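<purpose> Linking amino acid order to shape
<body> The protein record starts here
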Amino acid sequence: VRTTLTTGGYWAKDHEITKQKIDKLIDAGLDQICVSLSDSHLEYVSLNHVLNIVRSARPRLNPIISIASYIGSNLTLKKLADFFQSNNEHPPLIDVASIIPFGRAQINYSEQTWHTQNISAFSGPCTSVFNNAQIDPYGDVTACSSVLSSHFFAL
């Protein structure tokens, strides 16, 4: 059984305290730590909190950062990678999940917003991810055929 902790990182203000907490969790059997980030997280959590988690987890764990992104997000893969590099830290694995609001969340976004925002805010050199959604053999929806299914790592 693998154990994973997903956190927003609010508690990781101080590097030494963060290191102590993560060491205790690893000693208790933690296998993976994931920091969940979005623009709304960053209203309460500084990227320095995330840096504390990454530095504290290494080298015993390979931390993951999961960015919840949408068109017009201020937090981008590039900004996060640049932040780590400016702090002399190799960026960890960063997963970017695009959010498309529906239901009550859709009230905050008009169709016009989706068509007028700059998609380059979180896209890389390949923009086909916005045009070529795929469903893999496991039923997962991926942005394009070059994206690995989460099931790949379990094989």
Remarks:
- DSSP finds four helices and six strands in the chain.
